[in-house]
UniProtKB/TrEMBL annotation:
Sequence intervals crossing the membrane: none
Domain DUF7064: 238-347
Protein name according to UniProt: DUF7064 domain-containing protein
Comp. bias intervals (Pro residues): 200-212
Signal sequence residues: none
A Pfam short name: DUF7064
Length: 369
């Protein structure tokens, strides 16, 4: 069993809100309040190389009460989104964590995983990974542009999660097929800690006929594929961001199921960054409209209208330049090129689906009669 080195610093007498600051101890593991075996702690680092239309991830999920970690490292470009087409993909599942007191501020993930070393609490980190057999290596320095931002618990999609997002200046070097590629971009890291993947208890209610899909749609109408896309209760998650540097950009979570028949979906968490000032989004007026490739069903083009709580606005238009599909028919993560405020920004669209739901949407998108 992995023992958390510190208590959850977010636990305090005052209620936790979006304005509650994180503290230095939040760089480390957090104790599960009830010993839940599905208690999970994540660490995620992203980067991109716009000139190569290349994106990359390093991600780990620690199931601390079960004593194992699942980790992945991958790099993708326009060669193709599937595992056999990616520039690099490695994933290790249920790797035992034998250290009785691991420290997430200075850790090398077991099983050949990446390392994370905190240089300055909540701000600066060094991330390293090497796979000599594949002639592959990454060395990243993440310098936070701002303090990590929190979201009020109990609001979708963070019902039980403590979650942070942070924009950083990411510099370093990628060794890919023997070539050394410099990295110099602005991208996001995030962390969360909460139960994850816990099976639902069996229902005691009598089995009833399944509701027709249309009854799951809050606002019926519009193209059938869009109506399928916004069915409620399907576990859809969409997370978008783009930044042109330390002073301009945005990040948002999309509430697709609350979208209207014209395809505009509200944004319920995130920020607008302009002139170096972050401000939370106005959830009542910020929206996104997505367009999909009729051959693959994957996101291809996106319009975003952002309004923050101080009334500032930004219109952003984005195009996907490369995708990764970690699992078949479950959507993709796309590297996005954004236009906003006369600038070009880079970021991602994380468009996550249940496979059966995605397949239905794609079939409707491809219908010829």
């Amino acid at each position: 069993m992995v023992r958390a080195a510190t208590p959850d610093a977010a636990e305090s007498t005052p209620p936790v809100t979006a304005d509650t600051p994180f503290v230095a101890a939040d760089d480390n593991f957090h104790a599960s309040p009830d010993g839940n075996p599905y208690w999970a702690e994540t660490t995620w680092w992203s980067f991109n190389v716009p000139e190569r239309k290349l994106g990359g991830w390093l991600h780990a999920t620690f199931y601390t009460n079960q004593g194992f970690v699942i980790w992945r490292v991958y790099v993708w470009d326009p060669r193709g989104p599937h595992r056999e087409q990616l520039r690099y993909f490695r994933m290790e599942e249920k790797v035992p964590v034998t250290d009785p007191a691991p420290d997430l501020r200075d850790i090398t993930i077991p099983g050949g995983g990446f390392s994370v070393r905190m240089l300055k609490p909540l701000r600066d980190y060094q991330i390293e990974f090497a796979d000599p057999a594949s002639d592959f290596a990454i060395s990243l320095h993440f310098a936070g542009v701002h303090d990590p931002r929190r979201y009020t618990p109990g609001e979708p999609p963070f019902m039980d999660h403590t979650h942070l997002d942070q924009l950083g200046h990411v510099t370093g070097e990628l060794r890919l097929d023997g070539e050394l590629i410099p990295i110099d971009c602005y991208s996001i890291r995030d962390r969360s800690w909460a139960p994850r993947g816990e099976p639902r208890p069996p229902s005691t209610k009598p089995v009833a006929p399944a509701d027709p899909p249309q009854s799951r749609v809050l606002h019926p109408g519009g193209p059938p594929w869009r109506e399928i896309e916004r069915e409620r209760g399907r576990g859809r998650i969409q997370y978008i961001f783009g930044h042109a540097g330390p002073d301009t950009g945005f990040l948002a979570f999309v509430r697709v199921a609350d979208g209207d028949a014209d395809g505009w979906s509200p944004l319920n968490h995130g920020w607008l960054l302009r002139d170096g000032r972050f401000e939370r989004l106005d959830k009542a007026t910020s929206v996104m409209k997505n367009y999909r490739d009729p051959l693959t069903g994957l996101s291809s083009h996106m319009q975003v209208r952002l309004v923050d709580l101080s009334g500032r606005t930004m219109d952003a238009e984005g195009y996907t330049v490369s995708h990764i599909c970690e699992r078949a028919d479950s959507g993709s993560t796309a590297l996005m090129r954004w236009d906003f405020d006369g600038q070009i920004g880079w970021g991602e669209d994380q468009d996550i689906w249940h496979p059966k739901h995605f397949t239905r949407m794609r079939e409707a998108l491809q219908a010829v009669r």
